[in-house]
Amino acid sequence: xxxxxxxxxxxxxxxxxxxxxxxxxxxxxxxxxxxxxxxxxxxxxxxxxxxxxxxxxxxxxxxxxxxxxxxxxxxxxxxxxxxxxxxxxxxxxxxxxxxxxxxxxxxxxxxxxxxxxxxxxxxxxxxxxxxxxxxxxxxxxxxxxxxxxxxxxxxxxxxxxxxxxxxxxxxxxxxxxxxxxxxxxxxxxxxxxxxxxxxxxxxxxxxxxxxxxxxxxxxxxxxxxxxxxxxxxxxxxxxxxxxxxxxxxxxxxxxxxxxxxxxxxxxxxxxxxxxxxxxxxxxxxxxxxxxxxxxxxxxxxxxxxxxxxxxxxxxxxxxxxxxxxxxxxxxxxxxxxxxxxxxxxxxxxxxxxxxxxxxxxxxxxxxxxxxxxxxxxxxxxxxxxxxxxxxxxxxxxxxxxxxxxxxxxxxxxxxxxxxxxxxxxxxxxxxxxxxxxxxxxxxxxxxxxxxxxxxxxxxxxxxxxxxxxxxxxxxxxxxxxxxxxxxxxxxxxxxxxxxxxxxxxxxxxxxxxxxxxxxxx
Length: 521
What we know:
By secondary structure, the protein is an alpha/beta fold. Among the domains are: 186 residues, Rossmann fold; 83 residues, ANL, C-terminal domain (GMP Synthetase, Chain A, domain 3, 2-Layer Sandwich), CATH 3.30.300.30. The chain has 14 helices and 25 strands. The strands form six sheets. The chain has a nine-stranded mixed sheet, sandwiched between helices. Helix 2 packs across helix 3, helix 4 crosses helix 5 and helix 8 packs across helix 9. The protein is globular and about 75 Å long. The relative contact order is 0.09. One of its GO terms (molecular function) is medium-chain fatty acid-CoA ligase activity. One of its GO terms (biological process) is fatty acid metabolic process. This is Acyl-CoA synthetase family member 2, mitochondrial. It comes from Toxocara canis (Canine roundworm).
C-alpha cells in the first residue's frame, strides 16, 4: 500500500498541470479535459470567484450533478481557498434549499440546471429571498438567508437581476488576478476543504467538516483497493454531489492518473452504453438499483460490455440475481466490489470483492481505516459475530472535525448510527439504522430486518420496510411492488404464507404484524 499523501487539492492538481493526457471526459457535453486544460480552467474560475468579493474561507454551495463545470467549480473553490459543499439540485420544495443555505451559512451558491423546469433554482431562490430581484450582483441582503450575498447561475441563456452567470465569473479572470491567488503551498494539508450534509435518511441532515488530507487519502485508499491505474478508464454512473463519489472519481485522475468518464449529467446515464464502448471503460461505478435498470435495458437491446473488468457497487448488499446478471452481461468482469459509503469520511472505508460474502456483507475495513462496534444493550445475538453500532476512525493520520457550525473538534471516532454485525473475519453486515430500531414493551429489539429480507425474496416485491407508527404500536410493512397490476390481497396472503413456511418472524407476545400498506413503484 502506498504512503499517505500529505498535500492539498490544488497542490495535487498542479503536479499534473503540464500533462496533455486526458483526465476527465463529459461525453454528452462533448467536453474532454486534459490535465493541463483542467488546471487552467480551475485557476481561471478561482480567480474569477475571488474577484467578485468572495474571500478565502467563505463557504460556497454548489448545486448540480455530473456537469463539466460543476466538476471544475469544486476544484476552483479548492484552489481559491473557498470551502465548498455539494448538493443535489432537485429540491422537492424551497424550504429544503432555504434550510441548506441558512444552516450552512453559505456566502455564495452556484446553481446548475435541475432535472425539473428551466430556471428551477432561480425560481426557488426568488421565493426564498425576493430581495434578489432588486439586488446588485454580489450584494444580496436577505432577511431569510442573511449570509448569502452571491448567486451564480450556470444556465447561460437566462440572465436575472442580482445574479452572475458562470461565464461572467470566468470572464473576470486575468493574469494579474491569477497571480494573486492564495499560496496553496503554504497551506496545511489538514485545512478544511469542504463541508457536506449527511444524507438525512433517519434524522435531519448534519454538516460534516472534511480536510484536503481526508478527501485525497480517502480517494487513494479506495482507488488502490479497486485497482484503479493509469491504464483503463473509470465510468461514473453515480452523482458527483455525493461527496464520497466526488472524492473517489473527481480526484482519481490526480491520485492514480486514471481517466474518468461521465456519460451524462443525469445520475442514471442514458448514454452509459455508448460511453463505455467509445472509451473502452474498464471500471464501472454504480449501485445495485441503477445497475438493474442498465442491465435490463442492455438485455432488451442486446448490448454487451466486453471492456468492463471491474464493477463497483456502492451502498448496499448485492442481490444474488444481480450477480448472475453481471456474470451474463459483463462477460469479462472478473471482480465485483461492494462498498459502504460514509459522508463523514468522504469515501468507501468498508469494501469487499469476496464472492462468498458480497450478497450479505458490505465488506471489511480497508487498510487506513479502523472500525469498532459500540454495544447498544441489544438482545440480538449472532454466532461468532458482534452486534452493535458501527463506529469508525477517520483515515489514518487525521481526526474528525465534527459537525457544524464550528468544525473545530478533533475526534478520534465517528459514530455512524448504523447497526451492524461484524464476524470474526471482519465482514460487516448492515442491519438497520439506530433511529429505525423497533423496541417492544419489554425493551427487546425486534429483528425487523430479518422479515424485510424474507419479504424481499418474494418475486413480486421490489422493496420492503417494516415500521411502527407509534410507540408499542402495530408493525406495518411498507411494500414496493414490481408491478402495479399485482393483486394486493393475493400478495399479502402469499407473503404471510411465505414467511411462515420459511420460519421467519419478528413477532412477540406484545407485537403482531397487523396490516400491510402496499405502495406502488
